[in-house]
Automatic annotation (TrEMBL):
Organism: Aquipseudomonas ullengensis
GO biological process: cytosolic ribosome assembly; negative regulation of ribosome biogenesis; negative regulation of translation
Lineage start: Bacteria, Pseudomonadati, Pseudomonadota, Gammaproteobacteria, Pseudomonadales
Protein name stated in the entry: Ribosomal silencing factor RsfS
UniProt-annotated location(s): Cytoplasm
Molecular function as annotated in GO: ribosomal large subunit binding
Amino acid sequence: MQNEELVKVAIAALEDMKATDITTIDVRGKTSVTDFMVIASGTSSRHVKSIANEVLDKTKEQGVRPIGSEGLDGGEWALLDLGDVVVHVFQVATRQFYDLERLWQGAEQSRAQHQDLPE
């Protein structure tokens, strides 16, 4: 399955479970860890867990086995490592605290500044 198709499967699962504020960040060329990050919010710990489990179920149906997952027990946040796609599901306050969208924008700017420094 192509990365873009996997992103679409993940987003469809997120939408089916009524996740909010779904954002996709293309990090190709910015990190070797993954190509895409999909970030979404849930309304409660139960909702976050349900959303994450639905994404896992839908991607497994497509033959994609997750490399790993974190945070499913607590429900404040969940990380699903699908290889070239990483899905983050947060409760709203936790998402605001970590602010991954800003972090990745800043990382890109920081990397450009460091490349211009003399050796």
